[in-house]
Amino acid sequence: MTRRKLAAGNWKMNGLKAALAEAKTLAAEHPAPNCDVLLCPPATLVAAMAAALEGTAVKTGGQDCHAAASGAHTGDVSAEMLADAGAAAVIVGHSERRADHGEDDAAVAAKAMAAWRAGLVAVICVGETEAQRDAGETLTVIGDQIAGSIPPGATAENTVVAYEPVWAIGAGRTPTLPQIAEVHDFMRDELVKKMAEAAEGVRLLYGGSVKPGNAAEIFAVSNVDGGLVGGASLKAADFGGIVAAAGA
Ligand code: PEP
């Protein structure tokens, strides 16, 4: 089955208002009619980015959401708030959230359901640490995270799954192409067990040190349907190269 590729950028805790110029440049100078493009700025910029990108093909997303729609949760942002600000999607379960905020699979699953409740696409992240890979536990870890982080109700329309080996994030190194293929093929099989034929439509992104120079070869790997990109999504010129690879 052919799945439309997705190039998703995660700005993490980077970007002041001036950085919106990069998003506008991306939309204007790197058109990508053959793939989907998503930029996830910090929460402070979601509304402004969504407004700046209105009428373009580039969508805006959040980087995290609370499981509840509203309430006494100081500092948190709900999926409904992101949708209200103009977001179309939200990343949940990024390894930095899992590590920095102690989010476990159950918390990630609750956030994914919150995203769906608000009408957002949930970009659900999984990935092993270097110690887990060295111990030969990669597929067990990914299988457990898929089982625990993707709630019943996932569809090809409401869910994207991102494989992000923790040791490759921001590290300038990536798994080999066969290693990426092994995990992505495994993820597809696990999703088929969970969702039957609907699993064939779910997009599986690779994330971890994707750059313009390696994006094309990574996106050509079996069951890789695009990328989740951190550092290289901050500049339109860099992310534009990755978007071009996704849309090729
Ligand atoms: C990320 O954090 O989602 C990521 C993939 O980061 P980088 O591209 O910088 O490795």
Total number of beta strands: 8
- Judged by helices, strands and strand pairing, the structural class is alpha/beta
Q: Are there runs of 5+ residues with pLDDT below 50, and where?
A: none
Overall pLDDT:
97
Helix content bin: 25-40%
Total count of domains: 1
Ligand list: phosphoenolpyruvate
Main β-sheet, in a few words?
8 strands, parallel, barrel
Q: Can you tell me the CATH architecture?
A: Alpha-Beta Barrel
User: According to CATH, what is the topology?
Assistant: TIM Barrel
Q: Give the C-alpha Rg.
A: 16 Å
Task: Give your account of this protein's structure.
The protein has 10 helices and 8 strands. An 8-stranded parallel β-barrel has the order 1-2-3-4-5-6-7-8, surrounded by 7 helices. The chain is α/β, with parallel strands linked by helices and 248 residues long. The chain has a single domain (6-12, 35-231), classed as Aldolase class I (TIM Barrel, Alpha-Beta Barrel).
Tag the structure with descriptive keywords:
248 residues; alpha/beta; TIM Barrel; 10 helices; globular; binds phosphoenolpyruvate
SSE blueprint and pairings:
Elements: E1 5-10, H1 20-29, E2 35-40, H2 46-52, E3 58-62, H3 79-85, E4 89-92, H4 95-101, H5 105-117, E5 121-126, H6 130-134, H7 138-149, E6 159-163, H8 177-195, E7 203-207, H9 215-219, E8 226-229, H10 236-247
Parallel strand pairs: 1-2, 1-8, 2-3, 3-4, 4-5, 5-6, 6-7, 7-8
Phosphoenolpyruvate binds at residues 10, 164, 169-170, 207-210, 228-232.
